[in-house]
Specification:
The protein is α+β, with helices and mostly antiparallel strands and 349 residues long. It is built from 17 helices and seven strands.
Amino acid sequence: MSKYELGAFVEPLCSWYEKNKREMPWRDQGGAYEVWISEIMLQQTRIEAVKAYYDRFLKRLPDLKSLAHVPEEELLKLWQGLGYYNRARNLQKAALKVEEEFGGQLPADYEALKSLPGIGNYTAGAIASIAYRIPAPAVDGNVMRVTMRLLACYDDIMKEKNRREMEKSLMEVMPKDKPGEFNQAWMELGEVICIPNGAPLCHKCPLKDLCQARAKEVQLELPLKPAKKERRQEKRTLLIFRQGDLVAIQKRPDQGLLASMWEFPALEGHRTKKSLVEAYGPEAINKGSDYKHIFSHVEWQMKSYILDFSPQDVERLQEDFPRLKWAKTTELRDVYPIPTAFQVFLKDL
């Protein structure tokens, strides 16, 4: 017998989902490729934000073959704004592996799906159950939050052993004729009613009379999560170099944060206008936007300056910044993948 007893919740939850599920493009299409793309996009990203990206992505890359062979820079441009760019790179790596090892079709097998880059237990379970109707668990943060509240359970949801035990418990009560609907019902409840970062909408919940956290009035205490590490803060000065109608950008390293994306050159610390004039001698310099961008582990506190140079000064500038590439502002918008962290500075141009 599993540690978590969930059988009593199955019928009312599935009945509620059947009547109240939201319309979404990937639910309407429902193929394995579409489910896969949507699930990867939805990691760390709100559903409403994903819809437009999903439609644009599928129009350009409608199938696995097109994904496998799209140039990486174009792929990253399609992904621009979603963040966590390794998700896009892993999609392409997985597509290539599917071509080589599975005949160009995502395998209808839970373990085989998990062998693909970027696909873990949750995503494999979602694809298997929704697209192929294979009974397989799909336990994400929504599911863990909902179940911990329903059971008034204080287990740490970040511990792998608890997540594995939850997968086992859900498998024991999963209706074998509708595994996809079952998994999506748990996700849906967590997305629209038993929400994170605030009070759950208990009055709307189909399971409110069965919920132990509601009965004990401990909804806001659950789920239990370890304290977050303090986010590191970094001060940066962005240098927006212009020469006529051209703007300088440079490619980030192939490894690490925002790998292989394009950025404006930056200096550590907050520099003064005077120090930049002394260092680079621009024809003109103007203050640009200030912006704070928060990643999961670091916060960039950015100030920017727009520095204008004559053509004869560009070679000297290239000596200080050897990786510079000059592009038109229209190309920054349409061609080069510029991360969200730098989008606000494009508006200064």
